[in-house]
């Protein structure tokens, strides 16, 4: 039976904090890499993350903090990466330690910029981590709700089902239910695309389209997601599973959604810069839109919603015009 061994969390934001809370309850010890020493010092003094999910209290005696990624990678067997995708490469650049023998789990819902690879592929191609040592964590899971211990369903994707099961055993608890899947690439792409569609939904919200239209938008979004997943990784999957459709719905509709909030501001006429400043947190879909557009240049999948969001965010075409064109293309 596979054992995850000592587990470390890489990243200091809200999802990293929620995941750390879930894991440490089970293991009573975690390693935790955060980029800033002052953040670590404040965390130890206050007993909670000073910036994100401040209501989640930790017994800091159960945590080995370090701002040195090499120390964490050397000491821990399972590494859960939860940095926003635009910063992943910078953190990894500091690595002097091999990670190919580690169990690497990515909870990042983004594409590695410039490389245009989902994170598991990046770890495989650049760091030689074999696919059986790579997993992803998906599912509808706002960090804020996990922090409040509201019932949430997560999915661990890994081609080695024993390893996936071992990590789900670590996560499963009173308010976390988990299942396993072998569709790592499909889950990772779906997790990126749902952010793009949540921005679309937010833009429409900002433009005062109503619930009737939002339902049509999300119906078209799931069809678009399905077309893309079938093209890039055509295995049998049920797109209505919570890790695909469920995550799209929560990001598309929830008040906690960063991507939806960001899109709403764009629809209301904010500039991208001012929307990003106002957010204070990362809207992954902004970066995901550009990467997915570039990736789809290779696949040529019909993706009108992705195209519309790209045109609004990167070509500065008016949201009114783009969304009107999109509405004409829907059935
Ligand atoms: N939040 C959620 O509910 C969920 C998030 N995810 C995914 O988790 C990943 C992390 O997102 P999330 O936790 O929400 O992020 P947050 O917005 O909560 O936190 C952002 C993190 O990025 C760091 N950061 C900011 N600027 C830089 C920089 N220039 N260089 C390096 N690091 C920087 C911040 O560090 P500092 O504080 O030091 O600035 C902080 O640790 C994303 O891929 C997201 O899609 C997945 C599921 C749920
Ligand atoms: O991935 C997430 C929920 O599953 C979080 O992203 P949003 O904050 O945009 O919803």
TrEMBL record:
Q: What is the uppermost EC class here?
A: oxidoreductase
Which keywords accompany this UniProt record?
A: Lipid biosynthesis, Lipid metabolism, NAD, Oxidoreductase, Phospholipid biosynthesis, Phospholipid metabolism
Q: Which InterPro entries match?
A: 6-PGluconate_DH-like_C_sf, 6PGD_dom2, G3P_DH_NAD-dep, G3P_DH_NAD-dep_C, G3P_DH_NAD-dep_N, NAD(P)-bd_dom_sf
Coiled coil residues, start to end: none
Where does the record place the Glycerol-3-phosphate dehydrogenase NAD-dependent C-terminal domain?
Answer: 183-320
Q: What is its EC number?
A: 1.1.1.94
- One MF term in the entry's GO annotations: glycerol-3-phosphate dehydrogenase [NAD(P)+] activity
Respond yes or no to whether keyword Lipid metabolism is given for this record: yes
* Annotated protein name in UniProt: Glycerol-3-phosphate dehydrogenase
Provide the species name.
Xylanibacter caecicola
């Amino acid at each position: 039976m596979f054992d995850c061994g000592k587990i470390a969390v890489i990243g200091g934001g809200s999802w990293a904090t929620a995941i750390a809370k879930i894991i440490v309850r089970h293991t009573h010890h975690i390693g935790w890499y955060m980029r800033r020493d002052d953040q670590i010092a404040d965390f130890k003094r206050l007993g909670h993350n000073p910036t994100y999910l401040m209501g989640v209290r930790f017994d800091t005696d159960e945590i080995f903090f370090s701002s040195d990624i090499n120390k964490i990678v050397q000491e821990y067997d399972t590494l859960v990466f939860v940095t926003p995708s635009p910063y992943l490469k910078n953190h990894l650049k500091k690595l002097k330690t091999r990670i190919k023998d580690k169990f690497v789990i990515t909870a990042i819902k983004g594409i590695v910029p410039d490389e245009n690879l989902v994170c598991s592929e990046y770890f495989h191609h650049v760091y030689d981590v074999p696919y059986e040592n790579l997993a992803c964590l998906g599912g509808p899971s706002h960090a804020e709700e996990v922090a409040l211990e509201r019932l949430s369903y997560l999915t661990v994707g890994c081609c080695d089902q024993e390893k996936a099961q071992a990590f789900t055993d670590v996560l499963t608890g009173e308010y976390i239910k988990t299942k396993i899947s072998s569709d790592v690439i499909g889950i990772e792409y779906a997790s990126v695309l749902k952010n793009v569609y949540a921005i679309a939904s937010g833009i429409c919200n900002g433009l005062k389209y109503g619930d009737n239209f939002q339902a049509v938008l999300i119906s078209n979004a799931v069809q678009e997601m399905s077309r893309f997943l079938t093209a890039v990784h055509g295995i049998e999957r049920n797109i209505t599973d919570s890790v695909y459709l469920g995550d799209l719905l929560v990001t598309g509709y929830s008040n906690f959604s960063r991507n939806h909030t960001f899109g709403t501001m764009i629809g209301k006429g904010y500039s991208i810069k001012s929307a990003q400043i106002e957010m204070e947190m990362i809207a992954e879909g902004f970066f995901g839109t550009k990467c997915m557009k570039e990736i789809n240049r290779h696949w040529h999948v019909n993706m009108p919603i992705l195209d519309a969001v790209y045109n609004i965010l990167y070509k500065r075409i008016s949201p009114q015009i783009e969304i009107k064109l999109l509405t004409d293309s829907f059935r």
